[in-house]
């Protein structure tokens, strides 16, 4: 096959693809434009902490830590709650690894997240995550948050307070 035939075949293929996309009425720019990126910033306070020490005293695999928080907007207005369950999957001295699942119950729907958190001693009620920020995957939602995905940066602050920056697309 000559170079001319290869090039003309490529040109015809490219034209056919453009015609097909135009027939659908959706350009690549419109397809990405339909997904809307949004960001919510919330502040957590008023913790209710629960500890379930499943085995021997101290941190051990299977221990569960629960936390319920009041969520407020930047103006201090209550907008919902965060309900968190953390299950310890690896207990090593000074490095406890827990799988975290949370659900934000907000006006108009819920947002769900999953991730990993590391503690020095998860069963110590005063212990906070080792890292200053938890990075959590936003895995879905209900109501007006149905079909979302994204990530949340949870910035740990003293006194079981935290700042949640949730970035998502719908």
Question: In words, what does this structure look like?
Answer:
The chain folds into two domains: 3-32; 35-169, AOC barrel-like (Beta Barrel), CATH 2.40.480.10. The model is unreliable at 2-33 (pLDDT under 50). The chain has an eight-stranded antiparallel barrel. The longest helix is centred in the N-terminal third of the chain and has 22 residues, at 3-24. The chain has 170 residues and is of the alpha+beta class. It has helices spanning 3-24, 28-33; strands at residues 37-52, 64-72, 78-92, 95-106, 109-119, 133-141, 149-157, 161-169.
Describe this structure in a few short sentences.
The protein is an alpha+beta fold and 170 residues long. The chain has two helices and eight strands, in the order H-H-E-E-E-E-E-E-E-E. The protein has helices at 3-24, 28-33, and strands spanning 37-52, 64-72, 78-92, 95-106, 109-119, 133-141, 149-157, 161-169.
What layout of secondary structure does this protein have?
Blueprint: H1 3-24, H2 28-33, E1 37-52, E2 64-72, E3 78-92, E4 95-106, E5 109-119, E6 133-141, E7 149-157, E8 161-169
Antiparallel strand pairs: 1-2, 1-8, 2-3, 3-4, 4-5, 5-6, 6-7, 7-8
What coarse outline follows from CA principal-axis ratios? globular
Termini separation comes to 48 Å
Going by CATH, the architecture of the largest domain would be Beta Barrel
**Could you name the CATH topology of the largest domain?**
AOC barrel-like
Proportion of beta-strand residues: over 45%
User: Number of DSSP strands?
Assistant: 8
Q: Roughly what percent helix?
A: 10-25%
Question: How many domains comprise the coordinates?
Answer: 2
Strand order of the largest sheet: 1-2-3-4-5-6-7-8
Secondary-structure-based class equals alpha+beta
């Amino acid at each position: 096959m000559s170079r001319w035939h290869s090039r003309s075949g490529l040109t015809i293929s490219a034209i056919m693809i453009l015609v097909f996309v135009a027939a659908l009425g959706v350009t690549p720019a419109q397809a990405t434009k339909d997904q809307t990126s949004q960001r919510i910033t919330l502040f957590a306070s008023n913790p209710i902490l629960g500890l379930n020490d499943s085995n021997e005293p101290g941190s051990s695999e299977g221990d569960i830590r629960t936390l319920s928080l009041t969520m407020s907007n930047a103006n201090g207005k209550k907008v919902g709650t965060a309900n968190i369950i953390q299950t310890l999957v690896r207990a090593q001295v000074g490095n406890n690894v827990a799988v975290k699942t949370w659900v934000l119950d907000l006006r108009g729907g819920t947002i769900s997240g999953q991730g990993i958190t590391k503690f020095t001693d998860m069963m110590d009620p005063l212990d906070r995550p080792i890292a200053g920020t938890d990075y959590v995957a936003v895995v879905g939602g209900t109501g007006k948050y149905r079909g979302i995905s994204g990530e949340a940066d949870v910035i740990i602050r003293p006194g079981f307070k935290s700042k949640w920056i949730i970035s998502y697309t719908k």
